[in-house]
Structures are given as structure tokens and as C-alpha cells.
């Protein structure tokens, strides 16, 4: 069979709305790009590569995510390795990175932490666009961190990865962070039952955020003040229905300058808040009280 015939077969299997996906899968098998594929669609495909393409097509038909089949996903200009151990980086998460870079613009060499890092997408993008930053990243999953480290090596980026639960591996960074970022699991119990089949093949550990989807926001916000500098920022990706709730959690924790940022569809997608600036109201040699919260004076 030639490429044109194989594509016709794949579109019949997957549906006309997935022609682009069929083309990308065939490009992957043939190690070519779409322009060359279309220009040489009458070229015969070897039996071995035809079989490989047919297998990938059937796996996609069974709802296996396209990015897992291709082995990569694009994020902020980086082509990142992905596998079933990590959440697939999404375009909406770029809004978090864009806002974080805006917040960090005045700081040449910031200290940054990304928790629930998965493939490392947020941490690696921040390191890439803020090369003098000291960037740390953590995840509970050893398999996810293995992929994140491969992505870091792929672009020669010096992100420091640590394994553990949320902020626990970073106690030595207390009072040092200019920005703490996270795209935590935030899908509610009800929403988990409504997800498309391909999304359900992504790791549950990276999706489910408790009954109301807010479990990890509460946990991170409760500990973030200890790690952030006065004036440091906490920034989250959020579900589009969660803006008001996360805003309230930040307010109750004493954060100021709280802002919700919308995605390209106009839906709430990012929430951020700032630690109160230190007013040097010392309680002891190293501690003070600012906005009724204890923070480190540095």
C-alpha cells in the first residue's frame, strides 16, 4: 500500500474528524513531516511500517491518547517526552507559565519550585525562558520524575528534581522562593466519571483532586507560606469552575494581590496570590508577624 491508501483506511477506522491524527501517526512511523508525506503520498510503504501504522491506528481507535502513541507533546516551544506515567501537557497550562514569567520579570535570578511536576513541563519551560533561575521540581511518582529528568537532559536544563509528597521534600527551601507553581490534580469525583476515554488513560494520580477537586489546593496553600519569601508568589492552574473557590482559599490564607487569569476560551484557568511584604515587626531574632501570619525575615 502507498501512504494515500493507508491514510484513507485510517480515516475510515478513526473517523473523518481524526484525519490530522492519522497523518501524524503515519509521519511518526515513516519518520517524516506532513509536507513530505503529502508530496510523496503515492510512495509505497514497506510491510513492516504498514503493520506498525495499523497497530498504532487501532490503539488510537481504542482511545489511547495520541501523544502517548507519538511519544511527545509540544509545550511552550519544547517537544517533551510523554508516557502513561505522566499527564499530557496541555495548551491551557501555557497560561500559567506565561503569567509566572510576567510575575518574575523584575527578578533576574529567581528561586522557583514546581510541585506535581509530572513530565516537568512547567519547571522546564520556566528554566528555559528564565535561564538564570534556580528551579526545583517535585512529584510523588518516581516514574514521572524519570520522564521529567529525561526531558531536562533533552534540553540541557538544570532543574533540580526531588521525589516526595507535595512540599515535603523541600523543607530546606523555607523562606527562599520567589514563586511556587503547581498544576495539581483538580478533577472532582463527579467529573472523573464524565471524562473522555482517552483522558481516563492518563494517570489517575495526576487527575483526581478529591470529592470537590480542591484537596491539593488546600494542602499546598497551607504549607506554601513557609517556603515563599515575603512578596513571593503562589500560582496554580485551576479547573474552569474553581476560580472563586481557590480565590477564597488564598484570601483565607492571607495572600494578597489575588488574580484569576483566563484561558483562550475566556474561562478561569490560573489563580495566583502574593505573600505579604515583611514590615519588620519582629517577635524574635528571626521571626516577625505580617498580616497576622508568621513569615521569615530575610
How helical, in percent, are the residues?
A: 25-40%
Indicate the overall shape: elongated
CATH superfamily of the largest domain: Vaccinia Virus protein VP39
Given helix and strand content, the structural type is: alpha/beta
Strand order of the largest sheet: 5-4-3-6-7-9-8
* Major sheet characteristics: 7 strands, mixed
Please state the CA-atom Rg, rounded to the nearest Å. 22 Å
Q: Please, how many domains?
A: 2
- In the CATH hierarchy, what is the class of the largest domain? Alpha Beta
CATH topology name of the largest domain, in short, is: Rossmann fold
Architecture of the largest domain in CATH?
Answer: 3-Layer(aba) Sandwich
Mean pLDDT equals 92
Give the low-confidence spans.
Answer: 279-298
Report how far the terminal alpha carbons are from each other.
Answer: 69 Å
Work out the number of β strands: 11
Q: How would you sum up this structure, described in words?
A:
- This protein folds into two domains: 3-62, Helicase, Ruva Protein, domain 3, CATH 1.10.8; 76-296, Rossmann fold, CATH 3.40.50.150.
- 37% of the residues lie in helices and 20% in strands.
- It contains eleven helices and eleven strands.
- A seven-stranded mixed sheet has the order 5-4-3-6-7-9-8, sandwiched between helices. Strands 1-2 form a two-stranded antiparallel sheet.
